What does this fold into?
Amino acid sequence: MDQGAYQIRLSDKGEGGENKPVNSKITLSVIKADVGGFVGHSSVHPALMARAKESLSRADKEQLLVDYHVSSVGDDINLIMTHRHGVDNPEIHQLAWETFKDCTDVARELKLYGAGQDLLSDAFSGNVRGLGPGVAEMEFTERASEPVVIFMADKTEPGAWNYPLFKMFGDPFNTIGLVIDPKMHQGFKFEVHDLIDHKKVVFSLPEELYDLLVFIGAPGHYCVKGIYSKTTGEIAAVSSTQRLNLMAGRYVGKDDPVMIVRCQSGLPAVGEVLEPFANPHLVSGWMRGSHTGPLMPVGRAQSTPTRFDGPPRVVALGFQLANGKLVGPQDFFADVAFDRARAKANEIADYIRHLGPFEPHRLHLEEMEYTTLPDVMKRLTDRFQDIGD
Ligand code: 13P
Ligand code: 13P
Ligand code: MG
Ligand code: MG
It folds into this structure.
């Protein structure tokens, strides 16, 4: 496409009607939080959704945003916003923070469960990272056609994206584009974060595939944060990575992550991006954030965890961006093609639930979000005797 024509289309008219240059890049920000469940930890009350929409529509009118869409999965509110202010922008983060604060007021009035759960501090200081809400943001030049998929999960942790991201961008048995699309054949770079030691490292695929898997096969410790095309250098995917439990030093709920994936034209096709979810993988989360279970792909109407507060859910919303406008959503997992994945997830749930408090259904001691172990241990300390040699 003619680059010049593209630039003119993206610029705003100034007051005198002249073309005023604007930041031609668009930023897509998805910021989410659980500020109170209806009922228990199962869903978001409609009054909270209405309050969130009201808050973002005010910002839209003030032209802070280009567009927005408010969504939810389980008990988590997801603010999907486009703007021209770049990632980590204080005004955008403040908008999200204040929106969640407003929603918390409503949650308190209705005495919803865990009102304000994810807002760990009263003092907002320019960025919601580290304060509780989950954040996935990317800035890019909008292509001639820009299909994106926003993934939103409940009752699990950010590492839940490791497996599907690897399938989408690293596995030719999932993504045939890696084999037959000349614009994908070089592969992708994976930025991996160590969530415990706060370090990051970049792997280049396919040549470092085995090295990558050593780390991301441990999703409670290493997390794929972002993916970049080796052909164009463009950002292709980004996930939210904060681990609430470690940040807060106490149990405040699983992180219930979000992820943005750009598709097509040198990136995986939409169908390649959805494909990994056809076979529900096991993730950490579920009841009390302390169990392993299958990640069930669902449409929004089915995104209310029930059985044992689950099984964990994932929703995929598709949008075409048009000069930053969010054209959509397409509720991908509502499709019948994912019926069998849901049935399989239910079958896995039946099986693994039988283990009750035994690992690997219950998470390893150090992975559990809360535990009575220290108390029980203290009470029984005197009863433990040396076994001897
Ligand atoms: P693009 O090369 O336009 O992304 O199309 C791939 C395709 O045909 C999807 O199935
Ligand atoms: P959420 O993290 O979705 O609030 O769930 C917490 C929980 O304990 C579910 O049993
Ligand atoms: Mg909750
Ligand atoms: Mg939740």
Q: What stands out?
A: Residues 1-21 have pLDDT under 50 and may be disordered. The chain is about 25% helix and 25% strand. Residues 34, 37, 41, 75, 114, 117, 253 surround magnesium ion (ligand 3) (CB under 6 Å).
